[in-house]
C-alpha cells in the first residue's frame, strides 16, 4: 500500500500573510510551484494556502496584485492529511473538499510537506507501469480508481 509520505513533496515554500500577490507569483515562478503556504507574521504557523488558481481568479476579478495580500485571499482553514495515511485517502479528501493541494502533517501535527494532484498523477503512473510489468491489473484497480476520479 502506498502512503502519502511516499509521494508528498517536502519542499514546501511559505510566505507571510502580508506578502502581495505579485510577491507570491514571483515566488511561485522562481520555485516552479503551484502553491505557497501562507504563514503568520512570525513565519512559524501555516494559516492557509494560496494557489495559482487563486491568483488568476483574483486578477480576473480586478484585484490590484500589488496591493492585495496573500492573507486576504488564502484558502483557510487548510485541509490536511497525516503522512502515514494511504494515498487513496488523500485523493478522497481532495475530491470531497474540492481542493488540489493538501497540507501533510507528521504524527506530532507539524508540517511535513504538501501533496498535490501532480503527486497523485505520479502515483498513478508508477502503479500503471508496475501493473504492466507484472501483468497484475486486478490487485490495485480499486485503489487506482479512487485516485483516477480526481482527473475526470
Structural description of this entry:
There is one protein chain. With 152 residues, the protein is of the alpha/beta class. The protein has a single domain, classed as CBS-domain, CATH 3.10.580.10. The chain is built from 7 helices and 6 strands. Strands 1-2-3 form a 3-stranded mixed β-sheet. The protein has a 3-stranded mixed β-sheet with strand order 4-5-6. β2 and β3 form a beta hairpin. The relative contact order is 0.18.
**Category from helices, strands and their pairing:** alpha/beta
**3D shape:** elongated
Order of helices and strands: HEHEEHHEHEEHH
CATH class descriptor name: Alpha Beta
In whole angstroms, how far apart are the ends? 23 Å
* CATH superfamily heading: CBS-domain
Question: Based on DSSP secondary structure assignment, what is the total number of beta strands?
Answer: 6
- Give average pLDDT, whole number: 86
Strand order of the largest sheet: 1-2-3
* Residue windows where pLDDT falls under 50 for at least 5 positions: none
Number of helices: 7
Main β sheet profile: 3 strands, mixed
CATH topology: CBS-domain
Total tally of structural domains: 1
